[in-house]
Write the structure tokens for this entry.
Amino acid sequence: MSYSPRELDRDATFYVAGHRGLVGSAIVRRLEAAGFTNIVGKTSGELDLKDREGVFQFFAELKPTYVVLAAAKVGGILANSTYPVDFLSDNVRIQVNVLDAAREVDVERLLFLGSSCIYPKFAEQPISENSLLTGALEPTNDAYAIAKIAGILHVQAVRRQYGLPWISAMPTNLYGPNDNFSRTGSHVLPALIRRYDEAVTAGASSVTNWGTGNPRREFLHADDMADACLHLLEHYDGPQQVNVGSGTDVTIREIAHTIASVVGFAGETQWDTTKPDGTPQKLLDVSKLAAAGWTAKIDLREGLDRTVAWYRDHISGLRQ
């Protein structure tokens, strides 16, 4: 396989699977800003990516030149630990259908998006791409992680068997516009934003968060993630997944304090230590990404200010 990364054709058909989600919508914004003129997205109502026949028919008609697979069933600790079958089955079907259909029409360039939960629970920090499949996963989201690992291996297999220059990127914890702020399905940062904002609205004197607040997490704004995706498509080619993150982390306690400050909550924060903490630390080694010429640009406070503003502007239409 001989492929040299280069600037993508701005007039070619570019399909973004999951274009309304946190990552997908950010990628669409980035592509539009970069001058792409034929960006295609389909809602789940228009195209169920779990429907293999429907996905194959869609790809046969569209024949996209480029694809970003950002569609996935996602959720926080509670959702992942409560519905592991859904997270495994739905995500594997989405991935297999899209990747097989893309291969059928020889999509030139495809980026598969995974998650940092693919790495072992006790991986050495910061987590290198080489840590994949070297240890046991975090039990609370192992089903989702296995699905994403299957996607990485699928991309690698396509490269070996068919010679297509497809790549995979593994983002850290993402946040920003169009995140899932629901009470039962959200990740830690949007969950905290909603909890503290509702406490302000209700005039509550305290907020209770899960766990000890001690685990450390790395956060990246979705707009930075989208910028990294386009950069990788134009500057990187290789079988190994690429970590995408900021390269710095904070404790959950620190992020909660910052969010409380951003939303204007002046009460007390309590911690329910009977609830699980999840992985103690999850900081990605982003040296491979840096070597490809990209680093994060949006700092955490700025990103949180923007995200809280978006949340408040869209609160009436968000999932409950």
